[in-house]
């Protein structure tokens, strides 16, 4: 696609905007992104405000910071190709930023000083990691259904206490063994035992093909 090779501002494609002369920053941004910098920033702030209110109202006052992060993300470096649908790109980036900050906030509340997110746990359950937010949403729904299908009530209770799966967005968190034990009023050793057998059951429910491999003694 080399419709982007004849304009003098195209030389800044894929490069940090700071490499361009200061007097060209606004022109470079508008040429590559497709909209004036001030308009893009205002749109990002507006969308951040509404998306925060929808997904995590506790962070609603950070909408300006999120908008600034998104705009900076578009300039360091600039896109490698001209953007044709700038509104869609900004909304997508705002939503990703909000979800990322929400996961960090939930993890920090539950595990101070340590990041524990859904993907680190789902790796135990599936050989294929989820990639985008749509796949994560599907994985959450599948895991919710699988949790409901676990036959043993004690195992099911431990797994449900382990996975924190909000119904209104795609944020995730995982409780530690100690937290599950405290929540359910049982010992940590019992949690570990029930969770180990529960993971095998969940893997089979999520991917019936994996049951053939599990019979060979891989017990982690």
Write the SSE topology.
Elements (H helix, E strand, L loop, with lengths): L24 H9 L3 H19 L7 H13 L10 H25 L7 H5 L10 H17 L3 H10 E2 L8 E2 L2 H8 L3 H19 L3 H5 L6
Helix pairs in contact: 2-3, 2-4, 3-4, 7-8, 7-9, 8-9
Please give a structural write-up.
The chain has ten helices and two strands; from the N terminus they run H-H-H-H-H-H-H-E-E-H-H-H. It is mainly alpha-helical. Strand 1 (163-164) and strand 2 (173-174) form a beta hairpin. The N and C termini lie far apart (48 Å).
Fill in the keyword field for this structure.
single chain, 220 residues, mainly alpha, two-stranded antiparallel sheet, elongated, 10 helices, 59% helix, 2 strands
Distance between the termini: 48 Å
Q: Beta-sheet strand percentage?
A: under 5%
Determine the structural class based on helices, strands and strand pairing: mainly alpha
Total of DSSP H or I helical runs spanning 4+ residues: 10
H/E element string? HHHHHHHEEHHH
Q: What low-confidence regions span 5 or more consecutive residues with pLDDT below 50?
A: 113-132, 210-220
Shape: elongated
Largest sheet: 2 strands, antiparallel
Radius of gyration (CA) equals 22 Å
Mean pLDDT: 76
Number of strands: 2
